[in-house]
Amino acid sequence: MLVIRLQRTGRKNLATYRIVAADKARPVKGKFLEILGHYLPARKDPVWQVNQERVTYWVSKGAIPSDTVARLLKKNGVKDMEKFIQRYTKQRSKKAPPEESAAPAAAAAAPVADLSAEASAKAEAAPAEEAAPAGDNA
Question: N or C: which end of the chain has fewer CB within 10 A?
Answer without folding.
Answer: C
